[in-house]
Write a structure and sequence with these properties.
The protein has 164 residues and is of the alpha+beta class. The protein contains four helices and seven strands.
């Protein structure tokens, strides 16, 4: 005959192993859920200042020899009529080229830079995308700002997100 205390010890060990396995599975599930969370975006005064200043930047879009559009004018024109500049580019093409230049000069992703990516969008009230420019890969805190521009067709939103 076998010793009854031996059988009782084996049952306790199996119960202990099951509890350890259950705790491990629960920990893995919580870890997976926490890693899937979207990174919080924080508002930034620095990015808002950049967007406000860039709206006053003079573009290469001349509507007449005396009238040169700034970036704000180009965005509004792109949203409403997409008129042609004197160099035969449309306002939307000029918007992408000008803002691409400004973003590369100001927020260029590099290993030693505080920003490692940027994401710029311009869209109208109907969520129609007028411009979308991206650079780099995000691997840190996201900061952003928006600038709203009035136009005859409604509100236009310019949004810049920087990841660093």
């Amino acid at each position: 005959m076998k010793n009854p205390t031996c059988k009782k010890s084996q049952e306790e060990i199996i119960g202990f192993v099951l509890i350890i396995l259950l705790v491990t599975v629960i920990a893995i599930v919580f870890l997976a859920i926490s890693l899937r969370k979207e990174v919080e975006r924080l508002p930034s005064d620095e990015i808002e200042s950049f967007l406000q200043a860039s709206m006053r930047y003079s573009t290469e879009c001349f509507i007449s020899p005396e009238r040169r559009y700034n970036l704000k004018d180009v965005i509004v024109s792109c949203a409403e009529t997409n008129e042609r500049c004197m160099n035969n580019q449309t306002a939307c093409v000029n918007l992408n080229e000008t803002m691409g230049f400004l973003l590369r000069q100001s927020w260029a992703p590099c290993p030693d830079c505080p920003a490692n990516s940027y994401n710029f969008h311009v869209f109208d009230e109907d969520n129609r995308t007028l411009a979308s420019l991206k650079g780099g890969n995000c691997s840190g805190t996201r900061t952003y700002s928006q600038v709203f521009l009035p136009s005859y067709s409604g509100k236009i939103t310019s949004e810049l997100e920087i990841c660093g």
